[in-house]
Task: inverse folding
């Protein structure tokens, strides 16, 4: 058990932290070989061992661009996932992603196509896959980061996880924007928004709701993460999965 993991996620959901600290705390001897370290720093990929088993790790890093997925990060993650699948290396995914990076630059560079590469890589892979949602997992970015709906084997979540279409504050602005605009008193408006944000969080943006619908298998205590990941990998050692026979698949080019 690593007790420090229970305090590593900041109370403020907008405050960053380095996911590398979590990786070093849960892998064997804190030994992590990071690949493409200086490229697309908002996602971390690399190799480590869990109880002696070689594993590929994919992790969003909130310390850079809040951990969002952009064209470069999507390509980097997709290539690594396909590499692991090619050599039968199990994949452990640590998720803290608020969404895809918006903007005309990303649109012109084809963010949908690059995001689809990561989606495709996870969906096509047949190796053992274990995902741990640390904090945010919103909308389309939830789908492309090893979600249960894409044949992922074991999905865990920390109690701090928010699995929803979007963040609570953004959702309240969309759902109750007219009511908020009608409230003239600033204090009353702030009180109304806070109440709605709390209501949305309890109803949608928490791991227990996701567990109820089968999107995650268990809500785990952060300090138990290493033990639970190792147990899942040991269970999946004999996994055998074959994709439908075909000449070749059509990747998102």
Result:
């Amino acid at each position: 058990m690593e007790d420090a993991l229970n305090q590593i996620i900041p109370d403020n959901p907008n405050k960053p932290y380095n996911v590398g600290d979590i990786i070093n705390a849960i892998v064997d001897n804190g030994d992590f070989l990071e690949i493409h370290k200086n490229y697309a720093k908002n996602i971390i990929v690399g190799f480590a061992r869990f109880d002696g088993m070689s594993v590929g790790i994919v992790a969003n890093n909130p310390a850079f661009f809040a951990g969002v997925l952009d064209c470069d990060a999507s390509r980097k993650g997709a290539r690594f996932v396909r590499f692991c699948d090619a050599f039968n290396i199990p994949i452990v995914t640590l998720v803290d992603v608020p969404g895809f990076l918006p903007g005309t630059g990303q649109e012109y560079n084809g963010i949908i196509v690059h995001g689809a590469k990561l989606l495709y890589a996870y969906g096509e892979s047949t190796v053992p896959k274990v995902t741990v949602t640390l904090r945010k997992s919103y909308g389309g970015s939830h789908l492309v980061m090893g979600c249960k709906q894409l044949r992922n084997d074991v999905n865990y979540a920390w109690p701090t996880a928010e699995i929803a279409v979007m963040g609570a504050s953004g959702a309240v602005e969309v759902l109750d924007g007219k009511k908020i605009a009608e409230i003239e008193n600033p204090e009353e408006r702030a009180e109304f928004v806070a109440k709605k944000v709390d209501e949305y969080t309890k109803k949608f943006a928490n791991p227990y709701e996701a567990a109820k619908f089968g999107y995650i298998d268990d809500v785990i205590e952060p300090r138990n993460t290493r033990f639970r990941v190792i147990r899942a990998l040991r269970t999946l050692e004999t996994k055998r999965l074959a994709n439908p026979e075909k000449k070749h698949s059509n990747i998102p080019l």
The mean pLDDT is 90.
